[in-house]
Amino acid sequence: MIKVTEARYLGDFQVKLAFSNGQEGVFDGRTLLEKKGPLLDPLRAEPYFKRLFIDAGALCWPNGLELSPRRLYESCKAPEAVA
To answer: Which of 79, 67, 75, 80 is nearest to 3 (CA)?
Structure first.
């Protein structure tokens, strides 16, 4: 089972992630914010988006939003692929 072990906000809704298997990638939070939902509304404000943290291997925010480590892993771009 893969887990997020590190998360660092890069700016512009981009988050550099490290995973328990040693891989790293960049999650583009803008794709998440294209969706609708009450848990996503607060994240549209960058200061709130930056309040991300890791809990039990998942990427989380204070409002209870939790993103699956497996989905994040599958959606991440390799760091060198990010402009």
So the answer is: 67
What are the phi and psi torsion angles at 73 (to 5°)?
Answer: -60, -45
pLDDT tens digits for 18-58?
A: 999 999 999 999 999 999 999 999 999 999 999 999 999 99
Q: Which residues of 43-67 are buried (b: 16+ CB within 10 A; e: fewer)?
A: beeeeebeebebeebbbbbeeebeb
67: three-class secondary structure by DSSP: strand
Structural domain boundaries in the chain: 4-81
pTM: 0.88
CATH class of 4-81: alpha beta
